[in-house]
Inverse folding.
């Protein structure tokens, strides 16, 4: 009698924000023993050196191409696991934030495939580290909300509650939607002078940040040509940091003028 094929397994793995040293040891071990790696653009190419044995499938938006349909990714995960392979699905940052993991989990469960989730360092935490700032503050920020600006103008995000929550808001996918984000936050009651710091490409060598306020962010980000990927960190917890960064920038400009 023919033996049934050995069941495969899928690992949904967070690759962290870009700096390869922020990848977990567990992620590196799984990459080194994977048969197949499905990789997002945000995960970056450096990780490929960690899995030279694996078949690599790019499933992100590359070179202006359309992103791979989600349903195709789910079918691929199921098909390769059923064929007995160890499959790593590598996502930028953490798996559980804005990475469509819920659809993949559902598809794997429906197909009876064994799977595991390996967390990663999300962009918002890498941004805080980049700023050398704390997202919470014992006096005026008692928690953090990770939010997508996708649908910033829609009713599905409780902007008013968020604006009045005194939480630090870490906004993902906000660069293209900063105008509607501003409208929603101001309409929700957030003060115009609330500090906002945008961190572009956190943890990468070419990272940069732009300090602004809720009232000024549309102009400031346009002027500084803020580009994706960036997160916006909004709230009083950023006040001190914004001041220091502004002073450093002024100093740098003054030094350049003198030179
Ligand atoms: N799962 C990812 C988020 C994916 S959504 C995570 O946990 O980080 C994509 C958004 O993440 C981007 O639009 C941007 O807002 C943010 N992002 C991803 N990598 C980033 C980085 N290195 N620096 C700043 N923002 C980043």
């Amino acid at each position: 009698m023919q033996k049934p094929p050995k069941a495969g397994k899928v690992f949904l793995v967070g690759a962290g924000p870009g700096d390869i040293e922020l990848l977990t040891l567990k992620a590196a071990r799984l990459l080194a023993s994977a048969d197949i790696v499905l990789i997002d653009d945000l995960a970056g190419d450096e990780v490929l050196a960690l899995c030279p044995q694996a078949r690599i499938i790019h499933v992100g938006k590359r070179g202006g191409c359309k992103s791979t349909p989600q349903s195709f990714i789910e079918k691929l995960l199921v098909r390769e696991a059923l064929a007995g392979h160890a499959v790593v699905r590598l996502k930028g940052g953490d798996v559980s934030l804005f990475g469509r993991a819920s659809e993949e989990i559902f598809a794997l469960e429906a197909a009876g495939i064994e799977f595991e989730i390996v967390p990663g360092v999300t962009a918002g935490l890498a941004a805080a580290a980049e700023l050398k700032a704390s997202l919470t503050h014992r006096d005026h920020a008692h928690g953090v909300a990770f939010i997508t600006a996708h649908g910033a103008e829609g009713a599905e995000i409780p902007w008013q509650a968020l604006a009045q929550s005194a939480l630090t808001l870490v906004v993902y996918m906000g660069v293209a939607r900063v105008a509607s984000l501003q409208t929603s936050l101001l309409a929700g009651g957030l003060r115009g002078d609330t500090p906002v710091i945008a961190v572009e490409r956190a943890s990468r060598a070419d990272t940069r940040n732009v300090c602004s306020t809720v009232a000024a962010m549309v102009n400031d980000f346009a002027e500084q040509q803020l580009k994706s990927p960036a997160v916006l960190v909004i709230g009083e917890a950023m006040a001190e940091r914004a001041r220091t960064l502004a002073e450093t920038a002024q100093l740098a400009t003054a030094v350049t003028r003198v030179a």
Notes: Residues 123-253 form a domain with the Methyltransferase, Cobalt-precorrin-4 Transmethylase; Domain 2 fold (CATH 3.30.950.10).
